[in-house]
Amino acid sequence: MHRRLSPAVALVLLAVACGDDRTNPFNRSNVTRAPSADAVLLFVSGSWASGFGQPRELFALSSDGSKLERLTNCTQASSPCDFLQVAPSVDRGRVVAVRSAAGAEEGTSALYFMDLARSVETLVVPRRRVGSVDWSPDGSFLLYTSITEDSGLEDLFYSFPDGTSDENLTQTRAIRERSPRIDPLSRTAVFERIDETGMGRIYLFSETPVTAGPAAGPALPDSPYVVGADADPVLSPNAVEVAFRRLTGLGNDGLGTWDVLRVRVDGSGLQTIATGPLFRGAPDWGTRGVVFVETDTVTSESRLVVVQPDGSGRTVLRTEDAGFRMAAPRWLRGS
């Protein structure tokens, strides 16, 4: 992670990237909006619709959960899409989004830059299937995962925000690198590494293991994970610790049961901060705490939950029917 670009230069690149409105599939209509000053969180959900099975849009939420804002109307576009996740920029009004076309074949999601205030967007990396993305806190680069033609597995890629200087950082044939997250000073990153046995562990870029975990258990169907696998890491605001989730069991209507844990970057001080027979999605760690979505298949509820790093202070900010597929919460920068 040695490449650096000043925030000022990054803003120039972004202006170039979104300066041609011909790339805007929304036909220049005002169909997106930047989050208000009250918003602290972004997440995706299909709860805009009256029924289940609809594509997910991007939403923002206030710190107490009282103010919900729908930021996108991708389902109204000529080519409807499903939001999988976003990474916010330093200025709140811009994001990079991993989106899949509604009804498209699994694995066809792509990476878009979106200026929410201007309803302008640009495809960042054409002809590449993107699984996850993070935008460096200094605004200078993106780190994302994409499936390569050589191996059919995910590698880590680096690029400037406009898609230039694109580079494969890992180039591994039998290893899957997924879910990268950049540290608060834009110096390094953590990611999920799945080896030839199917076991996933958390690594510090580029080859330093952070977690060891239990022995491998049975595979979770229709997923790359086995019981005991670690996934979806995020560094703490001071870059001293990592939060992540661990697959603890099967069942739960195929979602599996997942705990949320924290550990120091040297692998010491492992602590469970959320546990029990529920699905828990990828966490995010900000100054307000650790946020994640948990899904209870018995009650068919999904809950947007915030806990403090020691597991205390559990707060449910929002509850939806699980059929709306609420997922991928991210703190807005500075939250």
Produce the secondary structure layout.
Layout: H1 7-17, E1 39-45, E2 57-62, E3 68-70, E4 81-88, E5 94-101, E6 110-115, E7 120-123, E8 130-135, E9 142-147, E10 154-159, E11 167-168, E12 176-182, E13 189-194, E14 200-204, E15 208-209, E16 230-235, E17 241-249, E18 257-264, E19 271-274, E20 279-280, E21 284-286, E22 289-296, E23 301-307, E24 315-321, E25 327-331
Antiparallel strand pairs: 1-2, 1-25, 2-3, 4-5, 5-6, 6-7, 8-9, 9-10, 10-11, 12-13, 13-14, 14-15, 16-17, 17-18, 18-19, 20-22, 21-22, 22-23, 23-24
Describe this structure in words.
The chain is mainly beta and 335 residues long. Helix content is 3%, strand content 42%. The chain contains 1 helix and 25 strands. It has one helix spanning 7-17, and strands spanning 39-45, 57-62, 68-70, 81-88, 94-101, 110-115, 120-123, 130-135, 142-147, 154-159, 167-168, 176-182, 189-194, 200-204, 208-209, 230-235, 241-249, 257-264, 271-274, 279-280, 284-286, 289-296, 301-307, 315-321, 327-331. The strands form 6 sheets. Strands 20, 21, 22, 23 and 24 form a 5-stranded antiparallel β-sheet that branches. Strands 3-2-1-25 form a 4-stranded antiparallel β-sheet, with no helix packed on it. Strand 17 and strand 18 form a beta hairpin. The longest helix has 11 residues, at 7-17. It is globular. Mean pLDDT is 88; it is low at 1-30.
